[in-house]
Every structure is written in C-alpha cells, then in structure tokens.
Amino acid sequence: MDFTYTIKRSAKRRKLTITVERDRSIIVHAPENTTDEKIEQVLKSKRQWIYEKIGHPQKYQDLPHAPGKEFVSGESALYLGRQYRIEVVNDGIEEVQFVQRFLIPAKYVKKDEALREWYIGKAKEKIVPRVKDYAHQLGVEVAMVKIVDNRYRWGSCTVNNNVNFNWRLIKAPMFVIDYVIVHELAHLIEANHTPRFWNIVRAQTPTMEKAKTWLKDNGQLLEEKI
C-alpha cells in the first residue's frame, strides 16, 4: 500500500468505512473483529476513490497565520460569513461583545482565545437549535448535539446517533451551516453518499451546491484565528 492509514476498531460498528480527513489523513473505521488483511483488501479496492479524495481541493494542510494580521483595532474577524471590525477596548467591558463589530477587552493577553470562546458560545446558541429543528423535519432521532474542536471535519455523526459540529462553522454563512447540519443528519437515514443521500440533503437545503462551493472556496479561512 502506497499510502498510510489509521485503523479505529469498535465493537459497536457493523460496517467498515473509510474517511479521508481534510488534512488528507486516512481513517478506517472497522468492526472489532475485522482482520488487517480484510482492511487492506478493501483499501486496495477503494484505491482510486482514496486518491480522488486526497486530491480534492477541500483537503489541505493548516494555513500559516496571515503575516501582519494581529488582534489589534482595525483588523477584522469572520462571523456568519461576513468580516467585522475588531476594536480592542481598554476599559468598560469584561467580556467580548458584538455590536456590528467585535469589542475585545484589552485585558486579555491572548485575545484569540477570548474570541474563540465567544465563537463557541455563539455556535452552541445558533447551531444546536437548528440541528433539533432539522432533525424533526427529517424524522430522525438525535441522542446528543455537541459543538466540538475538530480541526479537520465540519461535522460528524456517531453510531450512537450523536452529532458533532466544528465550532468554526459559526464563521460561515447560515446557508452553509444548514447544509452541514442536514448533511450529518442525512447520514442517520443513509450511511453512505448514495444518490438517495444527496436527494435527502438537496430536498432540505436547495442551496446545497452553493454551500459546497462556498466551503471549497472559503473553508480554509475558517481555520484561521482571524
């Protein structure tokens, strides 16, 4: 095999699946009793698909921090698909505030961490209720919704019907967030990316293609601190 991969076995898993993460790492999720030989056989049969995924424009390494871009007044940060000005405030506020611009208390030595916590709070506030609404529309049962720090996936679902979403999604437009939500929930109906799967997603999010294009063109921006 001319590529490396990581195997994750689980007693709860019934099917073997292959995932190519956005950092191009290859993860094999397999039932507990699957042999290494069987896994290698499946990987060989999926070789062309794996190469296509590795070469996909949405797969990339971390961007270096933009030169000269720091947490100072006059810079900007993404929120729901738009750039908003950052203003560092010396006194009068204790936490990050958003009033058509980001107000960040100067007391925070690591202002990126302060903004990160604000993003996570907003992701919980805005994404979690939408997941529940879409789950109701699709008729699926979701055990738990989590906002997580998963650098190389926008969303994921587990065999226990838990769904996870990357907090960085809150930087994207709402139509993109909705697409990622529906994408993960549709996997609770159809595990693989079959025509039926895409029909489910498209029916719930008519702007699916627009959202996929936005992520392809702008997804890497979501990884930046600002």
UniProtKB/TrEMBL annotation:
UniProt protein name: M48 family metallopeptidase
PANTHER family reported for this sequence: UNCHARACTERIZED PROTEIN YGJP, UTP PYROPHOSPHATASE
YgjP-like metallopeptidase domain residues: 14-217
Domain of life: Bacteria
InterPro entries per record: UTP_pyrophosphatase-like, YgjP-like_metallopeptidase
Provenance organism: Paenibacillus aestuarii
